[in-house]
Design brief:
Number of strands: 6
Shape: elongated
Distance between the termini: 18 Å
Strand order of the largest sheet: 2-3-1-6
Largest sheet: 4 strands, antiparallel
CATH topology of one domain: Alpha-Beta Plaits
Structural class: alpha+beta
CATH class of one domain: Alpha Beta
Helix content: 10-25%
Number of helices: 2
CATH architecture of one domain: 2-Layer Sandwich
Bound molecules: ligand 2BA
Order of helices and strands: EHEEHEEE
Length: 109
């Protein structure tokens, strides 16, 4: 069995949960925050049997889109030690950031 930890954009989360549930995958949805953008994103925990792992990954790949976002990157002001001003930069976020863990035990007590 595998545990898929998928960090996705909030915009994709609702449809992704719905599509995974429709395909009979168990899903836990967590509200999370990205360290770089300091913006909300969604982390899904999906426990899957090995023979259904690829089916879950295919759904995630189909639903999750990459998007451009503007981030405020602090840069120091020339000649002013310790003074920082936000500088807008464009970053591409997603589709999904995925960790796959092998599950030692799966218990429901
Ligand atoms: P954030 O940390 O808010 O990052 C959002 C996007 O900003 C990233 O998209 C990436 O394009 C960019 N970015 C992140 N750190 C950067 C840096 N030091 N310099 C320049 N650009 C940077 P994604 O790579 O698609 O990541 C989306 C979200 O997935 C991240 O949100 C974070 O919540 C999570 N994530 C990504 N890599 C991770 C990792 N190695 N461990 C844990 N979480 C991770």
């Amino acid at each position: 069995m595998k545990l898929i930890i998928a960090i996705v954009q909030d915009e994709d989360a609702s449809r992704l949960v719905s599509d995974l549930m429709t395909a009979n995958f168990g899903v836990t949805k967590l509200a999370t925050t990205g360290g770089f953008l300091r913006a909300g994103n969604t982390t899904l925990l999906v426990g899957v049997e090995d023979d259904r792992f690829q089916a879950a990954m295919d759904i995630i790949e189909t639903v999750c889109k990459s998007r451009k976002q503007i981030a405020a990157s602090p840069v120091s002001m020339v000649g002013v030690p310790g003074a920082y001003t936000p500088y807008p930069i464009e970053v591409v976020v997603g589709g999904a950031t995925i960790f796959v863990l092998t599950v030692d035990q799966f218990l429901k007590l």
